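Protocol step 4 of 5: obtain the predicted structure for the target chain.
Materials: sequence only (see below). No template structures provided, no constraints applied. The aim of this step is simply to have a reference model before the mutagenesis design in step 5. Sequence pasted as it appears in the construct record:
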Amino acid sequence: QETAAGVAFDLGFQYDTGRRGLGIAMAMKNVGPALQFAGSDFEFNVQRPGDDPSARGRTVTATSAPFELPTYFQFGAAYPLMGQGIYRANLYGSFQNNSFQRDEYRAGLEWMYRDDFAARAGWGGSGNEDELFGFTFGVGLKVPLGNSKLYVDYARQMVRNFFEDVNNVSLRFTF
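Step 4 output (structure tokens):
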């Protein structure tokens, strides 16, 4: 019975520095004014002290406290470690500043053979002792099917407590 409506903006850009293939990107998400809930559940009838007991109650509207969306800022960079011949290797990194939680850091490495096979590894963290996820690794394979292609990717994410490691398999078909 309650709603909160508002407008938020996402802003960002990507930039090729022109220095040995280094690329950077920045983004801000959920930038906007504070929101506030309203609706019929905030309205109720009351009998004021001293009013005639047979009189109709007065409708009183309560208000909720304003709240902000979880705004965050991201900065990322990509750097080709090697890109000669049929082998390529890229290094990736990102930093995310969150308004309601700890800052997060991520790093990744991707090695490719032609555009047909890739091996990837990554790590992410926030410095929190209770961090749930850890090291990640995976492989990808491109399978040509005539004029079409099938991409098969596998990734495994290590989980420190409570659950088994997370396995992801994705299939993408292009034609």
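Step 4 remarks: The first strand starts at residue 2 and ends at 3. The mean pLDDT is 91.
Proceed to step 5.
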